[in-house]
Amino acid sequence: MKKITLFLALLGGLSLGLQAQSIETRPQTTANVGMDPIKQGNWMVGGSLGNIGYSFEGKSFGIGLQPRAGYFISDGLAIGAQATLGLTTEKGADNEWNYGIAPFVRYYFPGGASASGRFFGQGDVGIAGSSVGDNVSFALGANVGYAHFITQSVALEVTAGYNYSKANINAGGGHNGLGVGLGFQIYLPGRR
C-alpha cells in the first residue's frame, strides 16, 4: 500500500510540474519602433532576397539577389552600396548571369507611416555586367517600398520599381523593365 501511495504521489507531483512548464508563445509579427531605427548615425544591412523582373525589350524574365549596407546621414535618409547577383532567362537563348554594384540613396517618408512601418523611396546608379559578352554597362534604378518592423531592429520589406541598363553604350543597345522585390533589413544603432 505504501508503494502505491508513494507512486501516486510521485505521479501527481510530476503531472503538476509538467503543467507548470507549459509556456505558450507566438512569433513576434510587429513592433512599435517609431523613428528609432532610422535615426542619424544608425546603420542598416540586409537586402532583397527575391527580385523578380520583366524586361520590355528582350521579353526576358530575371531573378536576383541584392545585398545592401547603408548609413543614416540624417534622420530618415541613408546612403550606401548594394551588389546585384542575378539570372536572366529568355526563350530561345542561353541563360545569362548578371552582376553589378551601385551606390544608393534611400529616404523614409514621414507621412503615411505607422509606429511599426515606413514607406520609402530608393534610387541607385552604378555599373552592371553579364556572363554573355564582355559588356560592362551603366545601370540605374528607382524603387518605392514599405518596411514593416517585426522587432525593434529587423524589418521585412517589399519594393517595386523601374530598372534600366545600357548594355552597350557604343551600339546603343539596352534594356529596361519593372521589378518587384522581397527582403529584409537589420537596423543597427550607431554611436550617440
From TrEMBL:
<dbReference type="InterPro" id="IPR011250">
    <property type="entry name" value="OMP/PagP_B-barrel"/>
</dbReference>
<keyword id="KW-0732">Signal</keyword>
<protein>
    <recommendedName>
        <fullName>Outer membrane protein beta-barrel domain-containing protein</fullName>
    </recommendedName>
</protein>
<feature type="signal peptide">
    <location>
        <begin position="1"/>
        <end position="20"/>
    </location>
</feature>
